[in-house]
Design goal:
Number of domains: 2
CATH architecture of the largest domain: 3-Layer(aba) Sandwich
Largest sheet: 5 strands, parallel
CATH topology of the largest domain: Rossmann fold
Strand order of the largest sheet: 2-1-3-4-5
Strand content: 5-15%
Structural class: alpha/beta
Radius of gyration: 25 Å
Oligomer: single chain
CATH class of the largest domain: Alpha Beta
């Protein structure tokens, strides 16, 4: 009888062991599958010095939100879409791999000029680039930039940041309609922060380019759009405090990010 009980205990122990092993084998492949299905996006950034500092911060924020961004960028200072459309390097980059998205950023003032000027200096080149992007199998996106801190006083007397932002918004909306493209409204997030009572300066000393806060805010808007996540994890990066990072990232919830 003792031998029978002992044998029964061994059988029960062995059965439990098999069940545990089976459960592990069922769960482990699922974990591996989840790891393998981590979202991976490839993005080419075409623009100038406004775009230049953004990609690595976009990559870092995306990583903290469970996605991997593979990127390349072509951002010579002051370049327009016309220059990019005539550049062999830019056109080659568009076709060098199967990008998911290609981001286009026009020179910081041009889209805020008159519709007549946009017809001459932007639309033909935006059309050429978006055509090449689609031929390469990618989706073109337009990077709506921000108004300068004191407006474009070189071209408009008594200008302000908000007035310039309104013109930029109109300009990029018209470029989007002309090229059947979507707009990433980074400039609208800048306007919200700059118009609020939050003491967060987004501008570098020249009142035009972004400082670290401006780069972070811009990158957060991009990540929110690309990952289709209105609410982001906001890691502190480049000396930005967690509190500031979270405040900047919260702006993505207030935008109409229509993928």
């Amino acid at each position: 009888m003792k031998e029978f009980k002992s044998h029964l205990k061994i059988q029960i122990f062995f059965l439990i062991f098999l069940l545990l092993v089976g459960a592990y084998l069922l769960v482990e492949p699922k974990k591996q599958t989840e790891q393998k299905t981590q979202e991976i996006l490839s993005v080419l950034f075409i623009g100038n010095s406004y775009t230049r500092p953004l990609p690595p911060i976009i990559q870092a924020i995306a990583k903290s939100n469970g996605a991997q961004i593979i990127y390349s960028s072509i951002t010579p200072g002051g370049w327009t879409l016309q220059k990019h459309s005539e550049s062999a390097d830019t056109l080659e980059a568009i076709h060098e791999r199967a990008w998911d998205y290609v981001v286009l950023q026009e020179q910081s003032q041009l889209p805020s000029f008159s519709e007549e000027q946009r017809h001459k200096e932007i639309y033909p080149y935006a059309k050429k680039l978006t055509k090449e992007i689609r031929l390469a199998g990618a989706t073109p996106l337009l990077f709506l930039t921000w108004g300068r801190k004191h407006g474009d006083t070189q071209n408009y007397s008594n200008d302000t940041r908000s007035k310039m932002q309104a013109r930029l918004f109109e300009g990029y909306q018209n470029i989007a309609q002309t090229t059947s493209s979507k707009v990433i409204p980074v400039g609208l997030a800048w306007e919200t922060i700059s118009s609020s009572d939050k003491v967060i300066d987004l501008y570098a000393h020249d009142g035009s380019h972004p400082n670290q806060n401006g780069v972070y805010l811009s990158a957060a808007v991009f990540v929110s759009y690309l990952l289709k996540q209105p609410q982001l994890n906001a890691p502190p990066i480049n000396g930005i405090s967690k509190e500031t990072a979270e405040l900047l990232a919260q702006q993505t919830k207030k935008l109409n990010l229509d993928p």
